[in-house]
Design a protein that fits this description.
5 strands; about 60% helix; about 5% strand; globular; binds zinc ion
Length: about 280
């Protein structure tokens, strides 16, 4: 599934540097007890853009009621809504988390980073498709254009959204893991599992339905080719999950057990990827 890999390019060469720069910035901000305001959001965006492979010709910051960011194809520009970003992050902070361990700012830091990375991931997906037409991207675009209601209801299962969620949450978790204790960030690790397992389930025959199957079910005649497990032998379990590809029923059950155990595993050095690939 090289088309999916192209859209994702998850381990892009800049991600390590991006995580490092963001963690230094947030740590400084926290130590100085500065307010989490538009200036803070702008700082997160500046660092993320500096480490983006997308060559934006123009960046505009706007303050209105609309949510998020928009890519401006005519000018190769990006419009980022600072008020919307902050508002959305506050909203997410209030309903997303079960525990509110210690420093409440941690949830806001997390939500701002996740939001910015999510939007920039969409900008990158669009950019990659401009350079070379991409089957996965075009298929998602078609769904959004032709069946907007289906897209809205199944938002998180649409592949470009799935990948934007995964990249946003994974990077936000990695950034905060340099600043906070494991006890404080455990919940974020749980969220990554939720998104990784989204779309997967075992059907009545005992076979595993993958995220890609689920997506194809929505797409019907415009579905992407089904890939079987055998053709993915060279990929790790985490990679297959990340891309939404098939996994075995045994792997599915092991993942469920690992997910249930996540609260008891407080080893900070264990990234989600490492834990899953140990199965
Ligand atoms: Zn999105």
């Amino acid at each position: 599934m090289s088309e999916i890999n192209k859209v994702l390019n998850d381990e892009s060469k800049n991600d390590k540097e991006l995580i490092k720069e963001l963690s230094v910035y947030v740590k400084n901000h926290k130590n100085k007890k500065l307010p989490i305001n538009k200036e803070f959001v702008k700082g997160i965006i500046d660092i993320s853009l500096r480490n983006s492979e997308v060559d934006f010709k123009k960046i505009e910051f706007v303050n209105d009621m609309s949510i998020g960011a928009s890519w401006l194809p005519e000018s190769m520009g990006l419009e980022f809504n600072l008020t919307g970003a902050l508002k959305y992050a506050r909203l997410l902070k209030d309903y997303r988390f079960h525990s509110k361990v210690g420093d409440n700012d941690i949830f806001l830091y997390y939500s701002v980073i996740e939001f910015v990375i999510h939007e920039l991931t969409h900008a990158r997906q669009y950019y990659v498709n401009l350079i070379e037409k991409n089957e996965v991207y075009n298929s998602c675009e078609e769904l959004i254009e032709k069946k907007y209601d289906v897209y809205r209801v199944n938002h998180d299962k649409v592949l470009i959204e799935r990948y934007a969620h995964l990249r946003g949450h994974t990077l936000a978790y990695e950034v905060l893991s340099y600043i906070y204790s494991m006890e404080q960030i455990q919940e974020f690790r749980r969220i990554i599992y939720v998104y990784l397992l989204m779309g997967y389930k075992v059907n009545h025959n005992g076979d595993t339905i993958s995220a890609l199957d689920k997506y194809n079910e929505l797409m019907k005649e415009n579905s992407l080719p089904i890939v079987n497990i055998d053709s993915n032998d060279d990929m790790t379990l985490y990679d297959r999950l990340y891309l939404g590809l098939p996994i075995s029923t045994l792997e599915y059950h092991r993942l469920k057990l690992l997910y249930a155990d996540i609260w008891h595993n407080d080893d900070k050095t264990q990234r989600v990827k490492t834990l899953i690939n140990k199965l």
